[in-house]
Every structure is written in C-alpha cells, then in structure tokens.
Design a protein that fits this description.
The protein has about 425 residues and is α/β, with parallel strands linked by helices. The chain has two domains: about 220 residues, Adenosylhomocysteinase-like (Rossmann fold, 3-Layer(aba) Sandwich), CATH 3.40.50; about 150 residues, 3-Layer(aba) Sandwich (Rossmann fold), CATH 3.40.50.720. The protein has 17 helices and 15 strands. Helix 1 crosses helix 4, helix 2 runs parallel beside helix 15 and helix 8 runs antiparallel to helix 15. It is globular, with a radius of gyration of 22 Å. It binds adenine (ADE).
C-alpha cells in the first residue's frame, strides 16, 4: 500500500509556478548544488527523518531537495506565519514529495498546529529558524519519546534562545548554531537583510528613498547591511543603538547616531533589526511625524509595540497590500506587514546567491550531526573553521575569483616571533 503524503498547503494547483521559481533560485546556489550532488551519491541521511522549521521560500525548497537527495525523509513547516510562498509549498509537495505544513497568512493556532505536524514526523534532526520547533519539543520532553541526534539553528534570535537554554541546563540535545558561521552571518545577515529589507519596503510602499530620513534601530550585522543599502539609495540614515561600541562604529561608518526619543521626532521610515522587544514604543509613536512608515526586519514581531499603537489609535485600515494606516489624532502612521519580517512578508527574502552559503552551512551541519552526535554534548556548537572556509572557497570558485596563497617564506614569517624591524 502506498501511504498518502501528509501535507497542509494553500493550493496544489500553484505547484507549476512554484517549480519554475525553485529552479530559478537553484541557478544562483552553486555551492549547495555541489553538496547536493555529493549527498545524492553518499546518502548521509539514509533512514533518517529531518523536521525543518524555516521560511518556505524558493531557497529553502532547494535545501529541502538537497536533504531529500541525501536520503532524508523531510518535513517542513513555516518559521513565520507571513513568509510562506504558497506556490513553493505546493511544488515541494507535488513535485518533490516533501511533507509541507505552511500557508501564507496562517493564524497563530494554525502556525503552531503546523509545528506540531513537523514534530509528529518524529525527527532525528531538527532544523530551526528562530527555535520554535526545538522549544516546542522541549516543552513535551519527558511526555513523548524522542530519538533526536541534534539540531541546527539558522538565526541570531534562535541562537540567543538556545544559549539561554544552555545557561538554564535545559537543552536536551546538541545544536549547531549555523548563524555563527562566518559564511552565514557576515553575508546573509548583512547583504541579504540589507537588500531584501529595502526590497520589502519598496514593494509595499513604492516610496522614493533618497532624501528620506531612515532610522535603523540596531547596528548588528543586519543593521549594518540595511544602513549601507539605504545610504546607497540616497537616504539620510540615522542609527539608534544600546551598545556603545556598535554606536561608535555607526558614527565612524558615517551615520548620525541618536536616542530613539530624538530619532522618533524626525524619521520618515523606521526599520527595527534589534532582536529585542518594544524598541519602538508608545511614546515614540506619539512623537512621530504625520506619514511616518514603521517596519521590522528582526525575527519576531515584538520589536514594534503594536498593541500600544492600536491602543492610542482611533482607527486603522489597510491602504495597500502590507500597508496598514493607523490614525492618532490628525496624524497617520503606516505599519508594514503587521510588524512581521518585512523582507519575507512583502518581498521574497534574501536572494538565492546569499542563501547558497547559509544553506550550504545547514546541509553540512546536518551531516556533521549524523557523523558526530555520539561525541557531542547538549551544547550549542559552531561549525568548524575548516568547513566555514571551504564554503567561502567554493563560493569564490563559483564566482570565478582566484585569490593568492601564502608563500613558504610568508608562512615562516607569520610563525616566527623573533623577526622584528
Ligand atoms: N531568511 C531570509 N531570507 C530567506 C530566504 N530567501 N529563504 C529562507 N530563509 C530566509
């Protein structure tokens, strides 16, 4: 008897559009392709189940296909209720036989029922973007028998949650912090978020960015990227920070740095990328100019205090897709994508070329778990520098870029402490 594939997607008839888009993204994922070809031969995940909770995009589809080629039985649920690309979800089910549980715009109850479906898959490896699957599994720990070798985590917010679990001695299996690979955060967080956040804002609003005062809240890797791209389009970029070193870096990178209270009064567009809560709060909304646009590109929709915005507004209405107008007195404030990741809600997330490296890290992290889980403790690990550098090497090669090698003389010089002037 053939068992029916389990899934919950919007509409399977969208599959043909999704397939073309998945193949389009694949063209820009040469490093993942090399890994996929090797996995197809070596089958490192034969007999294993992987449950992934990631943004359901064309790039994620290529990762799922890679894992399946490696022999895994894969289930995928969304890591955000608004980021699912329904055509991609349909194609993964119909064309690639992958169990997908994700519908764009799903409510909270459905979102968590889809996470449950991924857990019911009984994974040997979990793959998270924001730690929702791993934290749901930990809430059930003891009441259900799990057989998990390890997990991976894609994003800064998820890694912060995991490190908190380690501190509380709560983590029950080892996790690889993919985010902490150099070939992940230095590129995906900076250039990926930089470009896709601006893309999301422009697709949602079609505003002209040059001449606008763009307030970037947070100057981590994502904030650096967003600031750089906004500046490149001619915006007057203002950075807000709580970390003195990052604030100083922003000043020396050429931006104005000020408190959020000051910035609130003058900003035209506000973008949060801090990973923290209520960064834009009630008093900031009260001080904002008429027409201010507010959005978030951090993982969770907590950075903008939306309940406070609702409380002080007399009315709200949708004025364009992903643009909600809030009326406070005679003033209007525009909230994009319900405060969810604007780059994945109003646009398509990071381009494939950058996700190529992130998902090469994810694939190799899974393989590492299979090979090494017996030696690992219940801790958060970072991928070895050798693997990280290999990914960079392969990416450079795919771009046709050659670099220099140290000569024997240079190696000797670097290794010696006796040499001086
Ligand atoms: N995170 C940011 N952009 C993404 C993308 N295109 N696919 C999956 N996860 C992402």
């Amino acid at each position: 008897m053939v068992t029916k594939l389990k899934y919950d997607v919007k509409d399977l008839s969208l599959a043909s559009v999704g397939k073309k888009r998945i193949e389009w993204a694949a063209k820009d994922m040469p490093v993942l392709k090399l890994i996929s070809e090797r996995f197809e031969k070596e089958k490192p995940f034969k007999g294993l189940k992987i449950s992934s909770c990631l943004h359901v995009t064309t790039e994620t589809a290529n990762l799922m296909i890679t894992l399946k080629k490696g022999g895994a039985d894969v289930a995928l649920c969304a890591s955000n209720p608004l980021s699912t690309q329904d055509d991609v979800a349909a194609s993964l089910v119909k064309d690639y036989g992958i169990k997908v549980f994700a519908i764009k715009g799903e409510d909270n109850k459905t979102y968590y029922s889809h996470i449950e479906a991924a857990i019911d898959h009984k994974p040997n490896i979990t793959m998270d973007d924001g730690a929702d699957v791993i934290s749901s599994i930990h809430k059930k720990w003891g009441s259900i028998d799990f057989n998990i070798m390890g997990g991976t985590e894609e994003t800064t917010t998820g890694v912060i949650r995991l490190r908190a679990m380690v501190k509380d001695k709560a983590l029950k299996y080892p996790v690889i912090a993919v985010n902490d690979s150099m070939t992940k955060h230095m590129f995906d967080n900076r250039y990926g978020t930089g470009q896709s956040t601006i893309d999301g804002i422009l697709r949602a609003t079609n505003i002209l960015l040059c001449g606008k005062k763009v307030v970037v809240c947070g100057y981590g890797w994502c904030g650096r990227g967003v600031s750089l791209r906004a500046k490149g389009l001619g915006a007057d970029v203002i950075v807000t920070e709580v970390d003195e070193v990052k604030a100083l870096e922003a000043v020396m990178d050429g931006y104005r740095v000020m408190s959020m209270d000051e910035a609130a009064k003058i900003g035209d567009v506000f973008i949060t990328v801090t990973g923290n809560i209520n960064v834009i709060d009630e008093r900031h909304f009260k001080n904002m100019k008429d027409g201010a646009i507010v959005c978030n590109s951090g993982h969770f929709n907590v950075e903008i205090n939306i309940p406070a915005l609702k409380k002080i507004s007399s009315s709200k209405k949708m004025v364009r897709d992903f643009v909600e107008e809030y009326k406070i007195g005679n003033k209007k404030i525009y909230l994009l994508a319900d405060g969810r990741l604007v780059n994945l809600s109003a646009a398509e997330g990071h381009p494939a070329s950058v996700m190529d490296m992130s998902f090469a890290n994810q694939s190799l992290a899974c393989e590492y778990i299979v090979k090494n889980h017996n030696k690992l403790e219940n801790k958060v690990y970072v991928i070895s520098e050798t693997i990280d550098r290999e990914i960079a090497k392969l990416k450079l090669k795919s771009m046709g870029i050659k670099i220099d090698k140290l000569t024997e003389e240079q190696k000797k010089y670097l290794a010696s402490w006796q040499e001086g002037t």
